[in-house]
């Protein structure tokens, strides 16, 4: 079967660092995406990993371990506007389907 | 400005009525997608289209229909056969470069409520 697991909710403090984990079991793997989605709005692209290791982009970094079926999104210097859902998604091989996780709702408090 | 538009943002319909959700993009993307999002669940793929005049069923196509007569447009019809149509519907598009690894760009969504 195909499954993506991520925590339902997390809370962190403004200025802190938070790590959102994602584990996946999919039939084929063709890259892993992280999207940010504010309530009632469209998801927006944050990062894409296809090789093992860490990709850094400003305050956000994403890590991938293909052998472990594991990724995390690291958010540094948290701001109130980072309060949103973070969706982990895996691209499948042999087609155009992307499998999305249920998302992690992050609450940033002052 | 390039982007994807969906209209309307909120839609109310009576049970038993068909309703069509609009999705237009001017990003010159070949691929377009329709997803459904329910609370506590990930995005579920309804239909996708890689090219004009061709489309494929996703994981939850029953009760839905689509057309792709133009590259820019991919309307979704929610028919009366859909048992639980109340949901947030998201349209997306992507270039056809890497297939499933292409970044998808999402529209603002339509929240459909069936009364």
Tag the structure with descriptive keywords.
heterodimer, A: 110 residues, mainly beta, five-stranded antiparallel β-sheet, B: 115 residues, seven-stranded mixed β-sheet, four-stranded antiparallel β-sheet, 48% strand, globular
Distance between the termini of chain B: 36 Å
Which class best fits the helix and strand makeup of chain A? mainly beta
How big is the Rg of chain A?
13 Å
Q: Based on CA inertia axes, which overall geometry of chain B fits?
A: globular
Percentage of residues in DSSP E strands of chain A: over 45%
Q: What share of the residues of chain B lie within helices?
A: under 10%
Q: Specify the number of helices of chain B.
A: 0
- Please indicate the percent range of residues of chain B in DSSP E strands (runs of 2 or more): over 45%
* Share in helix of chain A: under 10%
| Pattern of helices and strands of chain A | EEEEEEEEEEE
- Radius of gyration of chain B (Å): 13 Å
> What oligomeric state best describes the polypeptide chains here?
heterodimer
Q: Sheet bearing the most strands of chain B, described?
A: 7 strands, mixed
Q: For the largest interface in this structure, which chains are involved and how many residues does each contribute?
A: A-B, 28 and 28 residues
Parts with pLDDT < 50 across at least 5 consecutive residues of chain B: none
| Annotation, overall tally of beta strands of chain B | 11
* Biggest sheet character of chain A: 6 strands, mixed
Which residue ranges of chain A are poorly predicted, with pLDDT under 50 across at least 5 consecutive positions? none
Count of runs of 4 or more consecutive helical residues of chain A: 0
Sum up the overall morphology of chain A in one term.
Answer: globular
Q: Roughly what is the average pLDDT of chain B, rounded to an integer?
A: 91
């Amino acid at each position: 079967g195909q499954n993506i697991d991520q925590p339902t909710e997390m809370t962190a403090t403004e200025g802190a660092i938070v790590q959102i984990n994602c584990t996946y079991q999919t039939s084929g793997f063709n890259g892993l995406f992280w999207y940010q989605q504010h309530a009632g709005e469209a998801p927006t692209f944050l990062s894409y990993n296809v090789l093992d290791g860490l990709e850094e982009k400003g305050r956000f970094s994403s890590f991938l371990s293909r052998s472990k079926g594991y990724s995390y999104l690291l958010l540094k210097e948290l701001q109130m506007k980072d309060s949103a859902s973070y969706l982990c998604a895996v691209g499948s091989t042999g087609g155009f389907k992307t499998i999305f996780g249920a998302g992690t709702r992050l609450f940033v408090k002052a | 400005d390039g982007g994807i538009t969906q209209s309307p943002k909120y839609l109310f319909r009576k049970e038993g009525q068909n309703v069509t959700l609009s999705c237009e993009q001017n990003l010159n993307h070949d691929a377009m997608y329709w997803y459904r999002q329910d609370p506590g669940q990930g995005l579920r793929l309804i239909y996708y289209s890689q090219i004009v005049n061709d489309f494929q069923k996703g994981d939850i196509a029953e009760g839905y229909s689509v057309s792709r007569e133009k590259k820019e447009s991919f309307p979704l019809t929610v028919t009366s056969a859909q048992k639980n149509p109340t949901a947030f519907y998201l349209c997306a598009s992507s270039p056809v470069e890497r297939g499933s690894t292409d970044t998808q760009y999402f529209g603002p969504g339509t929240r459909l409520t069936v009364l």
